[in-house]
Amino acid sequence: MSTAQLKHYLNATGILACNTDIHLRCLEDIGCSWADAVELIEKKELFLSKVYRKRTVYLSPRVYYLLKQCRVQRPMPEPAQRLYELLRDIPCGLETGELRELAQMDQRTLLTAMDFLLEELYITAVGNGHWLNPNWSTYRYGTAEHWEAAAEPRPEAEDPRGTLMEFLSWSMPEEEIRRLIR
Questions:
Q1: Phi and psi of 83, rounded to 5°?
Q2: Hey, how many other C-beta atoms are within 10 angstroms of the C-beta on 46?
Q3: What are the backbone dihedrals phi and psi of residue 129, each rounded to the nearest 5 degrees, phi first?
Q4: What is the mean pLDDT of residues 7-24?
Q5: Taking burial as the number of CB atoms within 10 A of a residue's CB, which of 154, 168, 170, 179 is the most buried?
Q6: What percent of the chain lies above the pLDDT cut of 90?
């Protein structure tokens, strides 16, 4: 599959898992590659998060903006706030190692803070870091605001919950959609 086909799939379904999941299709299931996802990340046509069951998922811009309207972000704990403030000043993003060095955090604290920020839609992958092998790379992370500034804007929906329930209904069970929206 190509990047165009991945974009089409995301626009049609709204969400795709990075790895195998019981309720969601993943990159491998639809014949796409990591490189396809990275290309859409670079173009700001895909929003990476951990909003679904604390697992890495790819959201279409439409679903990201609808979720943003539905969900109330929890306040950031101090380590997450520190990372967010670092990322706020760097539009092109930072890799995890760079963040750890700048924030002077141990690995466990850093990953916990990163997971929180990804779960709450405060940050996302804004670009590719460096390739580890032909099928895997690191990401550069940045704020959702930086992603939004580079992505195509979307108007607010009158009924974001209803729109999400209807849009996602054929790609995941209703209970999972409710859990996603919370």
A1: -65, -45
A2: 26
A3: -90, -105
A4: 92
A5: 168
A6: 81
Q: For residue 141, list its beta bridge partners.
A: 94, 125
Instruction: Tell me the sheet residues that pair with 48.
Output: 58
Return the exposure string of 79-118: e unless at least 16 CB atoms fall within 10 Å of the residue's CB, then b. Answer: bbebbbebbeebeebbbbebbbeebebeeebbeebbebbb
Contact in structure between 48 and 124 (CB atoms under 8 Å): yes
Tokens linked to 40: 């859409």
Q: In a 3-state reduction of DSSP, which class is residue 160?
A: helix
**What's the pLDDT band for 1 if we cut at 50, 70, 90?**
low
Tokens of 153: 């804007």
Other Cβ atoms closer than 10 A to 38: 21
Q: Which residues have CB under 8 Å from 2's CB, separation 6+?
A: 36
- Write out the two tokens for 43: 């173009």
Confidence at 99, pLDDT banded by 50, 70, 90: very high
